[in-house]
């Protein structure tokens, strides 16, 4: 995939690009829990689009560096303004849309929409606020939240980060735990899958197109997979569509849930069954689609999706269907064949 210069819309946030790690330990507190400490790593990555790909991964403060909270999504700037939107999916079944402003080297964000999967546990988060501030080459961060038990916005997290210049050499040694027992039936899916031949995209309202794609399905010992899919143009190598989120199996069932946010501003929750004698097929249908404030306005409204993953020998086949406000029937949109990178 081609490395593209920082998009003009992100120039006011050029100072934020990169990987940031807690200088010491972050501190967590809340009226309903015990105080705690944690390590954290933030990534704001540019692929030349008018947004940063955003990931935050926290770890326990023990020597084990056990993975804790993870959120993943996109930080977008409204071109020509100081308005910014952060859309992120969290690994406990929550999705937040936060809007705010950039002032000098400070970003203030407040939630405008919070969506959760049916499996999200109580108490429910009802409001969030966060602030990023660059001070003396450190990134200072404060996160507030309100819940169904604590209705007033209350400080929850506070941390100070330093930018990692040579990330490869200084990569945090997170403890990678064994695959969670709930995911054993999907052990074959874990890994990185790439298309060797261009995949095919079609739809009644657009011209057919080709693309390359890479899907990363990774486990860090929790009862879900981290999921990232990135496509790019087969000729220019320019990044195209990206979606990121979490794939999980509901305990005691063959039900699979995929929660995703993509870089056109859509949040989807898809649920379906693990099928086949060898559990080699996953058939998912959307049960929730949220169009965020950061959605691309020129696109027809997405109303329904279906995707089918099928293991065929050493290959993974994917067919993706969608319905929109202009094409109300579920219609094939993408078809791709992947091999696992060993």
Automatic annotation (TrEMBL):
Residues 10-162, 183-340 form the THAP4-like heme-binding domain. It comes from the Eukaryota. It catalyses: peroxynitrite = nitrate. SUPFAM superfamilies: Lipocalins. Gene3D superfamilies: 2.40.128.20. This is THAP domain-containing protein 4. It comes from Trachymyrmex cornetzi. The lineage of its organism: Eukaryota, Metazoa, Ecdysozoa, Arthropoda, Hexapoda.
